[in-house]
Specification:
The chain has about 40 residues and is an alpha+beta fold. It contains one helix and two strands; from the N terminus they run αββ. It has one domain. It is flat and about 35 Å long. This is Nucleotidyl transferase AbiEii/AbiGii toxin family protein.
C-alpha cells in the first residue's frame, strides 16, 4: 500500500489493533463502503 494513499493511517491502525480485538470472545468485523467493528 502506498503511504500517500488517503486511508493509509487508518488501515495501519486497524491492522495493528486487530490482534488485540481478535482476543475478544464475541467480535464481528463488517465490511462494505466502510469497515465497522462491533464488540458485543
Amino acid at each position: 500500500m502506498d503511504k500517500t494513499f488517503p486511508y493509509y493511517r487508518q488501515v495501519a491502525l486497524l491492522v495493528r489493533a486487530l490482534p488485540y480485538v481478535a482476543n475478544e470472545a464475541c467480535f464481528a468485523l463488517k465490511g462494505g463502503t466502510a469497515i465497522n467493528s462491533f464488540m458485543v
